[in-house]
Amino acid sequence: MTSPVLEQIQAALATVNDPEIKRPITDLGMVESVDIDDTGKVSVKVLLTVAGCPLKDTITRDVTAAVSKVASVTAVDLELGVMTAEQRSGLKDILSGGQAGQAQREIPFGKPDSLTKVYAIASGKGGVGKSSVTVNLALGLAAQGLKVGVLDADIYGHSIPAMFGIADSQPTQVEDLIMPVPTASGVSVISIGMLKPRRDQVVAWRGPMLDRALVQMLADVYWGDLDALVLDLPPGTGDVAISLGQHLPSAEVIVVTTPQEAAAEVAERAGTMASMMHQRVIGVIENMSYLACPHCLSEGKDHRIDLFGSGGGARVAKTLSERFGYDVPVLGEIPLDISLREGGDAGKPVVEADPTSPAARVLHKIAADLSGRGRGLAGLQLGLTPSSRF
Ligand SMILES: Nc1ncnc2c1ncn2[C@@H]1O[C@H](COP(=O)(O)OP(=O)(O)OP(=O)(O)O)[C@@H](O)[C@H]1O
Q: Where is the signal peptide (predicted)?
């Protein structure tokens, strides 16, 4: 039996999103029953996707808050249950959009009508700050109001979860569909490290294994409707970069380098590799660009110490522009900044923990510029050839 109050409660429940799937729990078959007694006490039973769901506290809080707001509700009694195998299979069907049971799901970002911008963060060598840039750029894009996912494909490092403060989190699995782990600010994260049975296990995979892992992270993960997916690639020009090029030629590549000559040369190779895979290199980020002299700052002066030399980013941008015949700009120069390193170590990225610090300001600016380029099909090759000139 429905009553106006029950309808209001249903409407309130429809405002609660599952934190991992980011869709209303009412659309996902998670609300099993709703009742209200004569005193205004509401009894709700919500089914979790798996027993021991890591986000059950969030769901409890959100459901209780939403239902409590309905006028005439005096109390909320929430019971949590767990979906049966059959209910989970139904949920998987909803999430995979009718593709359930297919041996190989499609990569949603590879479809011609995909509106998700895919940014692949590449570098020539390790340790130049590629993962730090990935994490902070993703949060910077989220701060611009975008729905953002991060895929950590750096088999050697997979440091992304720790930098986000979710190192101990494991993704929830609904049948063979994997839910990305949400960060505190709602960025969805999957790391190649999360696919290993044990955290300390060393990944020594060859090309085909890596390719399978990358496809799994792109196709078997329920990413939902993202505005941007930021990928942390392993350094260099190896198997993952080739696989990514094959599966996602529409990915836009950002090359991270330091000001050093030696770093610039290998960074150019990483950029050239992307271009060989028909991906567009949209810019270069120079990290560890300079150190703001602390003594001068205290005197109100801006003096830069070029700890690692200078000009690497500009050199890579110039070389790649000449090589590809289109403009590859320097997107920003991120200074050395203790708060960036501390934020990474503590799992509290600098763009959120210390947004006015010098590095965070540059990263926010890069994110704002990128999001200003807009979502959608702009910049994609549409495969149209003009038939005549006007
Ligand atoms: N601008 C910066 N200022 C201060 N420390 C930085 C800066 N950029 C990066 N770091 C620090 O340098 C170290 C290496 O950075 P990061 O892990 O992001 O590099 P990476 O290129 O992803 O390395 P790898 O490829 O080996 O994973 C980290 O400890 C990070 O905190």
A: none
